[in-house]
Structures are given as C-alpha cells and as structure tokens.
Write a structure and sequence with these properties.
heterodimer; A: mainly alpha; Muramoyl-pentapeptide Carboxypeptidase, domain 2; B: 139 residues; alpha+beta; Beta-Lactamase; 5-stranded antiparallel sheet; 5 strands; globular; endoplasmic reticulum (chain B); Trafficking protein particle complex subunit 2-like protein (chain B); golgi apparatus (chain B)
C-alpha cells in the first residue's frame, strides 16, 4: 500500500472539496455523503480486483468474509479488525470502500458506521440474501 | 496461437471479445457462449473433485476438431475464455497459464482506471495491445 500519509491528506481534501462544492448551491447535505460513499465504492472494487488476483478461489461466503476480515482489512487499514480510528464525516468513504469490495466479490450489502465511543468505530454490514 | 479471446462479466455478458480471422467471428462468439456452461459446471460444487482446487485457472474446457477452449475465472467472477488453434504445435499448459496471467493483470489495470465503469465494454488501448500480442504470437 502506498504511503498512509498521502492518502490521509487526499481524503481530507476530498471531504472538504465535496462539501465546499455543495455550499456553492448544488445539493443538500445528504448528497455529499452519497458522493463520498460512491467514490469509496469504486475504489473498493478496484482494490479487491488487485488483491484477489493471486489468492485462491473463494469457495463460499465464509471464505469471502474471512478474506475481508483478515487480508483486506489489514492491508487497507493496517490494523486488526477490532481496533480502528476514524472521524465522523470521514466515514462515508470507508463505508463505500467496504461495500465496493464486497460487491465485486458478489455480495450485495449495505454498510453503515457508528461511533459510540471514540476512538472506536463500528461498521455494520447488512448482507442481502439472494 | 490464440484465435479468440473473450472477457465475460459476472452477469455473463461480454465485456470484450476479439477473434482473429474475421470471417469466423460469429462462430467464435457462439463457441465462447457455449463454453460458459462448461465454466459454470467447473466452478460449481459439483465439479469439486475434478478441477477447482482453489485455482483460478480452469484448464481445457472442451476440445473440438479444429481448436481447444480454455477458461479462467477470477475471484470477482469475471471469466476469461481463450480459443486456441489446435493445428499448430499444441501450446503447453504453463504457456496458457501465463497468457491468462497477463490477461488478468491487464484486466486489473483496466478495473483500477477511474475512468472505467465496471460493467462497460473495455475500450482500453493498452488492453487491446496486450491481446493483439497474444493473438499474433501466442507467447
């Protein structure tokens, strides 16, 4: 993964940029979150394609979840899945990232985030059964 | 030498398909379409004993009198199908594997291109060039 600092800076600017363009008339607050989430979605899809290039075939959903929880999570967040540290507005991109990753592996889901106690963040992944 | 290369999305429609002698294009389209069934069979749990073994490369899907069809499925359920002429010296298995590897690498690059929307047909020149190199020499 490329330098963490570079992405943090970019992410900061993305959020400010999207909100600024919203201020100049366009749309209300909800749309900003959607835009950021969609950006994360697309990036998540691309990331998954790159990461699963060399891994073995996933037999079932359990394999996919194991991959997401271990390899994908540690590569993206450089941390184990149960400790994570983020800020409120900045969650949209990350939720989209997870949703994009799952979608490219064939799992339709809705990802929401809650911050109950700082610096912890909980992602809730609701999977639609097909 | 590969005579036809196709990239099929997970919803089973073609993202990219190209064949070399232009007059047989329809025949190759049909071949690729019928090979999708074989791919599904190999991937599903039924064929577990035979091929799967956690590998992305599926191997020979089926041979006909003039050519052989090889398959490869990525973890994002995108399928690559390659039709190879049997008449010239049979390409060895690892050569086919390396061709699929190159395809997969180029496909990953296309996916990561922010101007590409997943699900659209592939128009990338780099991808085209890579496929051309495979069809001309079969390296």
């Amino acid at each position: 993964m490329a330098d963490e600092a570079l992405f943090l800076l970019l992410h900061n600017e993305m959020v400010t940029g999207v909100y600024k363009s919203a201020d100049q008339g366009e749309v209300e607050n909800g749309r900003c979150i959607t835009k950021l989430e969609n950006m994360g979605f697309r990036v998540g899809q691309g990331l998954i394609e790159r990461f699963t290039k060399d891994t073995a075939r996933f037999k079932d959903e359990l394999d996919i979840m194991k991959f997401i929880c271990k390899d994908f999570w540690t590569t993206v967040f450089k941390k184990q899945i149960d400790n994570l540290r983020t800020n409120h507005q900045y969650l949209a991109f990350t939720c989209g990232l997870i949703r994009g990753g799952l979608s490219n592996l064939g799992i339709k889901s809705i990802v929401t985030a809650e911050v109950s106690a700082m610096p912890a963040c909980k992602f809730q992944v609701m999977i639609q059964k097909m | 030498m590969a005579v036809c290369i196709a990239v099929i999305a997970k919803e089973n429609y073609p993202l990219y398909i190209r064949s070399i002698p232009a007059e047989h294009e329809l025949k190759f389209h049909y071949t690729v379409h019928t090979s999708l069934d074989v791919v599904d069979e190999k991937v599903s749990a039924m064929g577990k004993a035979l091929v799967d073994q956690r590998e992305l490369y599926l191997g020979l899907l089926y041979p006909t009198e003039d050519y052989k069809v090889y398959g490869y499925v990525t973890n994002s359920k995108v399928k690559f199908v390659m039709v190879v002429d049997s008449s010239n010296t049979a390409l060895r298995d690892n050569e086919i594997r390396s061709m699929f590897r190159k395809l997969h690498n180029s496909y990953t690059d296309v996916m990561c291109n922010p101007f590409y929307n997943p699900g659209d047909r592939i128009h990338s020149r780099a991808f085209d060039n890579m496929v051309t190199s495979m069809m001309v020499q079969g390296c």
